Amino acid sequence: MKTYKSEYGVKIFAYVISILTAIICFIPFWLIVIGSFTAESEVIRNGFAFWPKDFSMESYRMVFKVPEKIFRSYGITILITAVGTGLSLFLTTMAAFVLMRKDFKYRNQIAMFFYFPSIFSGGLLPGYLLIVNGLQLKDTLWALILPGLLGAWNIFMMRNFMTDIPDSIMESAKLDGANDFVIFTRLYLPLSKAGLATIGLFIALGYWNNWANAKLYINSSKLYPLQYLLYQMFSNIQVLKDAAMQSGVAMVDLPAETFRMAMAVVTTGPILLLYPFVQRYFVKGITVGAVKG
């Protein structure tokens, strides 16, 4: 009886801590959403509040002032995220499948080939010269996709997922005459859903939030991804506001802080809609990846 009461008390304590943690994590996001619907003058005067005292849609009007640009950038971001995530997952899982094979003679040497550059990279300049001069991909969508295709951490994490699959499955498939590619695509990939969802979410977030590659490799405004377009819009607003302040002209109605909040809402919205569909795989994947090593 005492054991039951003790376990019940631990569960209540865990639920309370979880609820408090969720509330603490939710408050900043709520302030961002409310701030995006607040007038700039109110934010400057009184800061952010839990409810807009002076409701305003000006920041969203600025974001969607030229809607075709926003929707085109949304399309480009969705395209590079979908293509990049798909290709990256396929290459990552193929590399992980090879590295987890105990019958692969040089797997430790190949693993070091992936691991070492992730610690001591060549830097920004060699990557820029490779994309611009070597591959001649400047001002193309491939310049936004290729740099993020492979990551050593993703490969090793996926390898840890695959090592959890019994070796007897591969041995049985070989006895039935299946080749390595069939074993990989029809057995190991379906059995690695948790790992695919976890790593896929990390890769997709990386592509979705990346704006630095567009700044380096893209000149045409028609190829701007969403993050870089909003970054440029915010920079232009900030420049106008700074110029007005230096001239002695107050421009409190020009949204800068609230525009930043609206940017966060616009860019994180699709990710928040996607997360519930991969949450159960994500939680399981994090647990497995943390236990195995």
UniProtKB/TrEMBL annotation:
Residue ranges constituting the ABC transmembrane type-1 domain according to the UniProt record: 74-278
CDD domains assigned to the protein according to its UniProt record, in alphabetical order: TM_PBP2
Source organism of this protein record: Eisenbergiella massiliensis
Keywords: Cell membrane, Membrane, Transmembrane, Transmembrane helix, Transport
Major location category of this protein: membrane
Topology in membrane: Multi-pass membrane protein
A GO BP entry: transmembrane transport
PROSITE patterns: ABC_TM1 (PS50928)
Compartment list: Cell membrane
Keyword Transmembrane helix: yes
Signal sequence, renumbered to the chain: none
Designated name of the protein: Carbohydrate ABC transporter permease
GO cellular component: plasma membrane
Transmembrane domains' residue ranges: 12-33, 74-100, 112-135, 141-162, 183-208, 259-278
